[in-house]
């Protein structure tokens, strides 16, 4: 074996070992970041995810997690960039498509929101389609496509009957169509399932009234509509 070949082999093996070590270190930072995030220590989670990304820039899970942190920071442009990078690495990454849909919703880009949630649902092994269908329902509702919103919310409920969020959306849709009895029925179902309120209608009313003075735009209108529905 010539000296040049031997040097190449040593260099190659050393590079492989370094690559594996970086991935292992990146995974460790990612796990620590998730732990911090679950404890609501968002800044500390952000630091760990950044360390993970520096060691392994092509980790879709880290990019997705970092995007979620940017969402919490309300830095929607950086969140969008992180989710798009994750999707570039894996076009079937439904979690990133879903989170991108949430981001576009925060930005008021409802047509883009529709496309993102639809992309999430294209993956037949996506384990949480009820979340994407709920997002789809909200996007249709914001665009004034009420019947399509109702269908999307119903699809969410078919897949997870104890998931409370689509019931809130349905209540708004039925209210918009003048189906006030249906709106009142489904909002009570939402309150029963919602872990924050656990069937306590008055607690929801008080919560909405507390949020109302600082709410703006679509959130303000939703609060007004919910309070109206709760008077039926």
Structure in a nutshell:
The chain has about 230 residues and is mostly helical. Helix content is about 80%, strand content about 0%.
Estimate what percentage of residues fall within beta strands. Answer: under 5%
Shape: elongated
Order of helices and strands: HHHHHHHHHHHH
User: Termini distance?
Assistant: 87 Å
Uncertain ranges: 6-17
Query: What is the average of the pLDDT values?
Result: 92
What's the tally of helices? 12
Query: How many strands, what sense, and barrel or not for the largest sheet?
Result: none
Structural class, by secondary structure, is: mainly alpha
Helix residue percentage: over 70%
Radius of gyration: 22 Å
Describe the overall structure.
The protein is mostly helical and about 230 residues long. Helices cover about 80% and strands about 0% of the residues. It has helices spanning about 5-40, 40-55, 60-70, 75-90, 95-105, 110-120, 130-140, 145-160, 165-175, 180-195, 200-210, 215-230. The longest helix has about 35 residues, at about 5-40. The N and C termini lie far apart (about 85 Å).
């Amino acid at each position: 074996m010539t000296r040049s070949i031997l040097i190449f082999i040593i260099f190659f093996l050393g590079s492989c070992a370094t690559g594996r070590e970086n991935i292992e270190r990146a995974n460790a930072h990612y796990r620590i970041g998730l732990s911090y995030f679950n404890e609501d220590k968002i800044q500390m989670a952000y630091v760990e995810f950044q360390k993970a990304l520096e060691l392994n820039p092509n980790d879709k899970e880290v990019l997705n997690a970092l995007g979620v942190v940017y969402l919490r920071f309300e830095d929607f442009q950086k969140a969008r960039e992180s989710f798009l990078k994750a999707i570039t690495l894996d076009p079937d990454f439904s979690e990133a498509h879903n989170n991108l849909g949430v981001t576009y919703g925060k930005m008021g880009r409802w047509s883009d929101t529709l496309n993102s949630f639809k992309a999430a649902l294209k993956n037949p092994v996506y384990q949480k389609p009820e979340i994407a269908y709920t997002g789809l329902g909200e996007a249709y509702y914001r665009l004034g496509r009420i019947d399509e919103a109702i269908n999307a919310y119903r699809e969410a409920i078919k897949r997870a009957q104890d998931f409370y969020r689509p019931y809130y959306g349905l209540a708004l849709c039925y209210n918009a169509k003048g189906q006030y009895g249906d709106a009142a029925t489904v909002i009570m179902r939402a309150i029963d399932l919602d872990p924050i309120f656990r069937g306590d209608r008055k607690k929801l009313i008080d919560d909405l009234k507390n949020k109302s003075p600082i709410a703006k735009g679509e959130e303000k209108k939703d609060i007004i509509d919910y309070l109206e529905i709760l008077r039926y």
